[in-house]
Q: What sequence folds into this?
């Protein structure tokens, strides 16, 4: 590899490091501010956004299964029960429909 290749690799490594340091510094500043409560809610918000974006364009059995899983999640607050009901609902709806 040429010196140019090594320069690009070095620059990319430096930028990756600086992005991580900037994230750590920003996180510490947010923790010390009045907006710290948002960090506590962030994991749940990320999960909800991932699920919501994956449901776009899905079929009706998928939406019904997601609704059943949501109901079980609200009632039981149990991840395993939520996943089991969602999978069973989807399997039964697709088996009955197909």
A:
């Amino acid at each position: 590899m040429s010196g140019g290749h090594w320069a690009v690799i070095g620059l990319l490594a430096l930028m990756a490091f600086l992005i991580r340091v900037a994230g750590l510094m920003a996180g510490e500043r947010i923790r010390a501010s009045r907006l710290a409560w948002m960090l506590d809610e962030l994991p749940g918000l990320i999960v909800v956004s991932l699920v919501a974006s994956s449901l776009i364009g899905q079929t009706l059995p998928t939406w019904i299964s997601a609704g059943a899983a949501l109901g079980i999640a609200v009632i039981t607050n149990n991840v395993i029960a939520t996943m089991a009901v969602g999978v069973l609902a989807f399997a039964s709806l697709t088996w009955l429909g197909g």
